[in-house]
């Protein structure tokens, strides 16, 4: 009997046991014991334990240890790119801080962005950048970091700003022809890329319109914290760093490289090196103050820049608000997130190997009837894969393959499937703390997933919007009879 045959025997209730166990343990970790610190280790072990529970079910159905571990290995291998990107983003943040790039972005942002329209502006800025470069991750790692800093200085809760950043970044990613997920969804469904993008407008524009309205209202009504006068913040930034528009060339070059479809790791490494070079050229006074005359300048500067890249860096100022903003964990600060991703891949791999994910998806397909039921089961399956397989690509590919024939049999045009995959698969990955999307953005923006979740309006509204359109049969395209 093959591995596939064995996994077919799993019962629906058995498929649910590891998920229920995981949800209970994660909830206990976050709500009762560790709070925000749960992602520093307890949640990772919870995923490993839930994977072990799934493995016990696999052994019951005579799957071998090797068969399950092979699937885990393939899952972890698929996240190698994301793990390396995380490390490079940690390094990038460190060098962009010590070089004055991030302080410069915050400095000019404080002067340009009016607090009343800041959240709406954040949404629009990240949407445009992500639309141009086709990457939500690159958007949050560049302009997103700066906008978080500006928002904190203006007195906005970081989770609120993170919600605006993520909403805009994922809108742009979803609608950009340069996005890998956009190309993937259209390819899986067998739809022309531009036809897919045009068809997504029907559900995506109402979602982003409502999201924009929400952030306009939040921006106008939010009182903010009691912060210092902006002029004081600007003076304190200038006191600690050399601030000049020329430093904005560093992020501009990185964004240009991404637009030109340079591999992300190459673009990020270029940003790290440019940041280090900018620190040597423009921040000599800061580096000398940090050295305190204990080393040769260039040896000591190398040590400080390398420390910013791999460990952590904290720039002390006279302003406690800026002290909080101007700190970075470097590459080492990303290790708990990488640990979380690997643990999630273990859980997802075992669940896939024992056939649990397929069994739940098949049950959903049979439970829902009619056109709305098909959309609902596809929507739910994509969200399920983001929560269990912990990877947005799997949340697009597997449901896409599973439901393609069902959409065809129902007489529905394939763009209905590709749109649903994006509405529910692409954008909800960032709402799951242990998904690669949630873990990455949480670490980069410095805000726990469960904190920004409610403010990532576009991301949770999108799968709801696709169900509304399906229920009321709005813009549900039928196949053209040959």
Walk me through the topology.
Blueprint: H1 3-7, H2 12-33, H3 42-60, H4 65-78, H5 80-98, H6 101-112, H7 118-133, H8 136-154, H9 158-175, H10 180-189, H11 193-221, H12 230-240, H13 249-259, H14 264-282, H15 284-291, H16 297-310, E1 313-314, H17 320-325, E2 327-328, H18 335-353, H19 356-367, H20 370-388, H21 392-409, H22 414-426, H23 436-445, H24 449-452, H25 457-471
Antiparallel strand pairs: 1-2
Explain what this protein looks like in three dimensions.
- There is one protein chain.
- The chain is mainly α and 482 residues long.
- It has two domains: 3-80 and 336-450 and 457-471, no CATH class; 86-333, no CATH class.
- 75% of the residues lie in helices and 1% in strands.
- It has helices spanning 3-7, 12-33, 42-60, 65-78, 80-98, 101-112, 118-133, 136-154, 158-175, 180-189, 193-221, 230-240, 249-259, 264-282, 284-291, 297-310, 320-325, 335-353, 356-367, 370-388, 392-409, 414-426, 436-445, 449-452, 457-471; strands spanning 313-314, 327-328.
- It has a two-stranded antiparallel ribbon with strand order 1-2.
- Helix 8 packs antiparallel against helix 9.
- The protein is globular.
- It starts with a helix and ends in an 11-residue tail after the last helix.
- The mean pLDDT is 89.
């Amino acid at each position: 009997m093959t591995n596939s045959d064995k996994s077919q025997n799993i019962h629906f209730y058995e498929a649910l046991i590891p998920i229920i166990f995981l949800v209970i343990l994660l909830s206990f970790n976050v709500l009762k014991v560790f709070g925000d610190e749960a992602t520093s280790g307890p949640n990772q072990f919870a995923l490993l334990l839930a994977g072990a529970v799934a493995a016990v079910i696999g052994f019951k159905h005579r799957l071998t240890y090797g068969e399950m571990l092979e699937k885990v290995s393939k899952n972890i291998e698929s996240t190698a790119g994301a793990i390396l990107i995380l490390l490079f983003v940690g390094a990038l943040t460190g060098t962009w801080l010590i070089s004055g790039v991030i302080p410069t972005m915050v400095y000019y942002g404080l002067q340009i962005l009016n607090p009343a329209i800041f959240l709406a502006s954040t949404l629009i800025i990240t949407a445009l950048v992500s639309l141009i470069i086709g990457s939500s991750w690159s958007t949050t790692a560049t302009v997103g970091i700066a906008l978080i800093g500006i928002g904190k200085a203006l007195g906005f809760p970081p989770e609120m700003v993170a919600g605006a950043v993520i909403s805009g970044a994922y809108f742009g990613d979803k609608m950009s022809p340069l996005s890998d997920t956009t190309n993937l969804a259209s390819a899986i469904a067998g739809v022309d890329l531009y036809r897919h993008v045009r068809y997504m407008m029907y559900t995506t524009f109402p979602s982003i319109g409502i999201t924009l309205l929400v952030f306009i209202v939040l921006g106008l009504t939010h009182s903010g914290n009691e912060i210092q006068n902006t002029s004081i913040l600007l003076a304190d930034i200038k006191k600690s760093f050399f601030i000049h528009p020329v430093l904005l060339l560093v992020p501009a070059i990185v964004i240009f490289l991404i637009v030109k479809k340079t591999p992300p790791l190459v673009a990020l490494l270029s940003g790290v090196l440019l940041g280090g070079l900018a620190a040597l050229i423009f921040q000599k006074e800061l580096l000398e103050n940090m050295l305190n005359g204990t080393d040769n300048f260039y040896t000591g500067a190398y040590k400080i820049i390398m420390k910013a890249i791999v460990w952590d860096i904290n720039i002390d100022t006279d302003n406690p608000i800026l002290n909080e903003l101007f700190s970075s964990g470097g590459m080492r600060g990303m290790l708990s997130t990488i640990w979380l991703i690997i643990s999630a891949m273990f859980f997802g791999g075992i669940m896939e190997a024992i056939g649990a994910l397929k069994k739940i998806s098949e049950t959903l397909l049979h439970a829902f009837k009619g056109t709305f039921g098909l959309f609902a089961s596809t929507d739910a399956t994509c969200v399920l894969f983001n929560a269990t397989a912990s990877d947005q690509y799997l949340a697009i590919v597997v449901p896409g393959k599973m439901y393609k024939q069902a959409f065809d049999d129902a007489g529905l045009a394939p763009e209905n499937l590709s749109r649903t995959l994006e509405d529910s698969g692409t954008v909800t990955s960032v709402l799951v703390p242990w998904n690669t999307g949630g873990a990455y953005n949480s670490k980069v923006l410095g805000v726990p997933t469960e904190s920004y979740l409610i403010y990532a309006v576009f991301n949770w509204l999108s799968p709801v919007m696709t169900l509304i359109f399906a229920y009321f049969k709005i813009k549900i395209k039928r196949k053209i009879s040959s």
